[in-house]
């Protein structure tokens, strides 16, 4: 499952840093602990 993290300031997509994410748009560094990650399970697929 791939999640896309967004910058808290400008809401652009962050790069894939494991500890510190960087926003290419506003050049902000965001620690992974400061990003809200909420697991949302996929809808079940009928077999």
Characterise the protein shown here.
This protein has strands at 20-22, 29-31. With 47 residues, it is mainly β. The protein has a two-stranded antiparallel ribbon with strand order 1-2. The radius of gyration is 13 Å and the shape is elongated. It starts with 19 loop residues before the first strand and ends in a 16-residue tail after the last strand. The model has no long low-confidence stretch (mean pLDDT 80).
Distance, first to last CA:
20 Å
Strand percent estimate: 5-15%
Overall spatial form: elongated
Task: Please state the average pLDDT score.
Answer: 80
SSE succession: EE
The number of distinct β-strands equals 2
Query: What is the helix tally?
Result: 0
Rg on CA atoms, Å: 13 Å
Task: Indicate the low-confidence ranges by residue numbers.
Answer: none
Q: Strand order across the biggest sheet? A: 1-2
Sketch the major β-sheet: 2 strands, antiparallel
Helix/strand-derived category reads mainly beta
Helix fraction, binned, reads under 10%
SSE layout and pairings?
Blueprint: E1 20-22, E2 29-31
Antiparallel strand pairs: 1-2
Key traits:
elongated, 0% helix, 47 residues, single chain, mainly beta, two-stranded antiparallel sheet, 13% strand
Give a summary of the structure in a few sentences.
The chain is mostly beta strands and 47 residues long.
């Amino acid at each position: 499952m791939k999640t896309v993290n967004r910058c808290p300031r400008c809401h652009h997509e962050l790069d894939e840093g494991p500890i510190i994410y960087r926003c290419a748009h506003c050049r902000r560094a965001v620690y992974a602990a400061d990003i809200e990650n909420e697991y949302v399970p996929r809808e079940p697929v009928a077999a």
